[in-house]
Amino acid sequence: MANYFSIFRPHYKSNFALALPVMLSQAGQMIVVLADNIMVGQLGATELAAVALANNIFVVGMMFGIGLVTGLTPLAGKAFGSNNRPEAANWFKQSMYTHPVMALLQTILMALVALAIPFMGQPEEVVKLAIPYYMLLVASLLPFQFFFIFKQYAEGLGNTRIAMIITLSANILNIFLNYLLIYGKAGFPAYGIMGAGYATLIARVVMPMAFTYLYFKLDFFKPERTHWKMIRFNFKQSLRMLRVGSPIGGQYIVEVLTFSLGSIMMGWIGEKELAAHQIVMSLVTLTYMISAGLAAATTVKVSHFRGAGQITGMNRAFYASLHMVLVFMFVSLVTFLSFRYKIPGFFVPDQEVIAIAAGLMFVGGLFQLFDGIQVISLGALRGIEDTKIPMIMLIIAYFPIALPVSYVAGFVLNLGPQGIWLGYMVGLMLVGAQLLTRFRWKVKKLMLSEQSK
């Protein structure tokens, strides 16, 4: 057994080193969301509801855009792994040609969505505040996408630290500007929730500006600067990048919609059940950052080994991430079970909500084990540019299976909130097993292909 794990030891270290900056970046984003809610919450319930409504609509389009750009990482990573930096630089410039155009189209479409907000059945006061705030978020999409082009390319080259430094710095700026612009401090007007929107927009404009400065300053990007003028737009390569990225965007949308619909079902049961659900979801989201960080590292390492033609290394990098995520999620499960009554108490004093949340934490703890498997498997498959079939697997596992199971277990079998979460777990078990099997099959196929040469 010791010999078995020893072959993964170098991968544990390198995968975690790549993953940690991604985890910290995501933690920073969560802190900004929390700060937004706390600061806007001081203005009143209507203002907080308006921000929540705008964010919930915006996040769907934003996640698709992020997924679209994520298709750059495995392509650049494969070129980097094969020691072909000019080819990696080519993918970077193709992304600079392609993704801003897509982001501009997306911005126009998302702006049009604002016309539908008054018809979403929300209180009139909330809608009046939500629409202008939402439009500021939409305006931030294009610069945010520019930042992600730099970020995903740097990750493809195995550098996750630059994006982390910029993200955390922008998060601090965002919170500071929130304080100035929401409440009107240091001589600034008090803009209310629009101040939070302006702060977000300014921070998201600064992020690509900072990355552009570092791009021209750091020796790390010297090959890109050297080959930049020689690279021309290539329609076929642009299309290939979109074919890799579009299903990733689709995967993100499927996940967002699935959990949003689960929240709606929870609201049908009752207010306290929904409150308990939100508490446990926030805890699961926190632990998910570990999985997501390791998945990003897995995508990078798998693409590098694939580019180098090292199929065994590719396989070991995947299993190293899988081992780490399962250990972490098991520790998380034990923690959830041991402190299932204490942790919810930090969120609310209501004993009934705490009791409901405690029941959900048992299912949520198990849920995380399967979530870890599916996230790491997805990351590995992205590393070999396999994104379309995994998206279809997610759609099948979530929409015709997980959500109906949630409804039947929650309402027909009267299992209540735990029944709804049971549906989540069934969907994750199914898709996790499918994705794991698919990656193993892909690796065997690549090994046979190498042996036949």
From TrEMBL:
Q: Name one GO cellular component term.
A: plasma membrane
Q: Name one Pfam family in it.
A: MatE
In the bilayer, the protein is annotated as: Multi-pass membrane protein
Keywords for this entry? Antiport, Cell membrane, Ion transport, Membrane, Transmembrane, Transmembrane helix, Transport
Q: What are this entry's molecular-function GO terms? A: antiporter activity; xenobiotic transmembrane transporter activity
| Location of the protein in the cell | Cell membrane
TM helices/strands, residue ranges = 51-76, 97-119, 131-150, 162-182, 188-216, 249-269, 275-297, 318-341, 353-370, 391-413, 419-437
For the keyword Membrane, the answer is: yes
Q: What species is this protein from?
A: Geofilum rubicundum JCM 15548
Which superkingdom heads the taxonomic lineage of this protein's source? Answer: Bacteria
**What Gene Ontology biological process does one annotation of this record name?**
monoatomic ion transport
Instruction: Output the NCBIfam families linked to this UniProt entry.
Output: matE
Name of the molecule in the record: Multidrug-efflux transporter
Major location (coarse): membrane
